[in-house]
Amino acid sequence: MTHQMDSEFIERFGGYQDGQLAIVLYPEFTALDVFGPHHMFINLMGERTLLVAKTREPVISDTGVYVTPQLTFEECPEGLLVICVPGGTNGTLRAMQDQATLDFLRVRGEQARWVTSVCTGSLVLAAAGLLEGYQATSHWVVRDLLSEFGAQPVNQRVVVDRNRITGAGVTAGLDCGLEIVARLRGNTYAEGVQLLSEYDPQPTLNAGTPEKSSPETVRMMRAMFDGFVENVKQVSAARLSAKAAPAE
Amino acid sequence: MTHQMDSEFIERFGGYQDGQLAIVLYPEFTALDVFGPHHMFINLMGERTLLVAKTREPVISDTGVYVTPQLTFEECPEGLLVICVPGGTNGTLRAMQDQATLDFLRVRGEQARWVTSVCTGSLVLAAAGLLEGYQATSHWVVRDLLSEFGAQPVNQRVVVDRNRITGAGVTAGLDCGLEIVARLRGNTYAEGVQLLSEYDPQPTLNAGTPEKSSPETVRMMRAMFDGFVENVKQVSAARLSAKAAPAE
Questions:
Q1: B58, B87, B205: residue with CB nearest A194
Q2: Tens digit of pLDDT for each residue in B175-234?
Q3: Is residue A39 part of a domain?
Q4: Structurally, how many domains does chain B consist of?
């Protein structure tokens, strides 16, 4: 259930800017990383939330679902209010090495009011050079690797450092999205968005972080991503050596 | 970040059934109602989570995003482990009156191990006759209307009554999805899914229910849906009169 905020609500709580928010799709993105913040953003009447990608062809998620982008990188308007990058695993690795994606993020990120990510999306921001000297977070499995890209990892669900807002793994996109709405429109407005999305979470289990989960489960989960962690390190090493010896 | 559970995890926690979970798409569905539970389901290695719709054409969400279904109603396998219906507003009203959708839900619902919904998706289940005599929930704006379809509304985030599992508004799909995983695989397994999706929610605001929100915000939000509520009542009235005087 979604509703564009109506005019009484908008006027009562401070009007709106006429701006655009862009969420980037790349092959094998994690769908919930996109649709968590997307749902929070989309109620910003007057602002348009757009899914952008290299081309307008449907983009496959990491679980095989095709989602159609609304604009290409080239068609994406300048001066975004928010740019947001979702996570993934193998697709994220490729995005971290894809020059067109990195160029788009660097140029649009430098102009955007808020530069944001969910889950391993922060690794893509980092690979684009947008987190150097910033505090940031990511999925718990790879959070510490942010330091290899010059960022300072913080064990927190949502990390705000100047105009960078990064979220932890997957579901943190909801908290991150709500925080971004609050920064754009103020708390009272964001509370309306929270009520409309009935965001009063009550998981019946309590194992959402490594600290709260059993050591055995943490060990098994980490093991699933050994290859991914290794690959991220290689991307970082290649990036550093390219920096040290730039092409002639 | 997603990962198909690997074999060590599966074997350690009780193996898996070879079954299918289906999430129904209809025009103007709410995307987060789909991708919340989808993310929780998709880690059930061995089970396939499928997006099903009337045709294989991309289906538009209530915020203008096109998602491509993976199977048609006809192609959907029999004997589903889980059938799940997302919410929406105008599209939901149409789904509640669409014979092909209602027939699909009734037939597949009667065979499914778990019949589930997120947000106003419970109104579609109710219109298909699947909640008569059951406790259920829905988005807070329309929850009480469930009684017009013979269900018993309960003010709770996730309601389990026999094999019906219904979730409250939009974001409740995450809690609902995790609960379904726990019912299918047990708590230890579900805790693994929770850790992988880092589901340790920490909204920075506390206005996710009408009880927690300001009366002014609740009033404005309710007012936005006056038309929708009226339309749901009309669908219910038409349904009751059709029942009272069946076609000759």
A1: B205
A2: 999 999 999 989 999 999 999 999 999 999 999 999 999 999 999 899 999 999 999 999
A3: yes
A4: 1
Nearest by CB: A170 against B1, B169, B182:
B1
Q: Which secondary-structure segment (H or E) carries A125? A: helix A121-127
Separation CA A210–CA A47 (nearest Å): 37
With respect to residue B227, please indicate whether it lies within any of the assigned structural domains: no
Q: Tell me the C-alpha to C-alpha distance, in Å, between residue B167 and each of B21, B110, B115.
A: 17, 19, 11
Q: Which of B32, B38, B168 has its CB closest to that of A39?
A: B32
Query: Measured between alpha carbons, how far is B124 from B219 in angstroms, rounded to an integer?
Result: 25
Which residues in B lie closer than 8 A to residue A67 (C-beta atoms)?
Answer: 65-68
A76 is catalytic: no
Q: How far lies A56's CA from each of A25, A77, B60, B70, in Å? A: 10, 15, 15, 20
Tens-place pLDDT, residues A191-209: 999 999 999 999 999 999 9
CB atoms within 10 A of CB B8: 12
* Whether pLDDT at A14 is above 60: no
Looking at beta carbons, which residues of chain A come within 8 Å of B195? 207-210, 213, 217-218, 221
ipTM of the complex: 0.94
Q: Which CATH number does the domain housing residue A99 bear?
A: 3.40.50.880
Contact status of B209 with chain A (Cβ, < 8 Å): yes
Whole-model pTM?
A: 0.95
Q: 78-107 in B: which are within 8 Å (CB) of A?
A: 87-89, 92
- CA separation for the pair A142, B143 (Å, rounded): 41
Q: How far is A9 from chain B (nearest CA, A)?
A: 7
Assess if residue A194 is contained within a domain: yes
- What tens digit of pLDDT does each residue of A18-71 get? 689 999 999 999 999 999 999 999 876 667 899 999 999 999 999 999 999 999
